[in-house]
Amino acid sequence: MKSGVRALGVAESYRRDTSTLAGVVTRASRVTDGFVFGDCTVGGTDVTDGIIDLVERLDREDVRYVLVGGIALAWYNVVDMHRLHEATDRPVIAVTFEESDGLLESLEAEFSGDALDRRRERYRGQPPRRELSVNDQTVFVRQVGLPEGEARDVVRAFTPEGGRPEPLRVARLAARAADEWRGGTDR
């Protein structure tokens, strides 16, 4: 992959009712050249809208991929990868770092009625996750808008060491710092 290819990594951090979203533009050469911040509701259903807003406000035509740190951010606020792909016109890759049997059991333990039905339907509509070896570590990848092989190449190209792609690593640090700066309270 060419060193100038850019990806937007999106991660979050929360302490209370509002989750801080951080978007970080990183080149494949590991140079960070853009930040954008937003929020979504902890336990809500608005994370996809929050990420779309980040991409629109960032207004960077040079960003080729959107990487998201997980499929359910901010306490089960499930990302709709298909809608995100359509709205941003970019391939979307969700990367998780722990093995699991999925979220259905957890969703059923935490929600009921319409709240459960909405999350369960959105979660079931997402692509399956696949195990991927990166630098002797294992991550789990879902992708929309690009073939599995290209998603694998993107994750590996943006991961210089360890198993966390650089756009997601830096976005996670930025989200935590912004959340701490906000005091972890609602605005």
From TrEMBL:
InterPro entries: Endo_dU. This is UPF0215 protein SAMN05444342_2048. Signal peptide: none annotated. It comes from the Archaea. Belongs to the UPF0215 family. It comes from Haladaptatus paucihalophilus DX253.
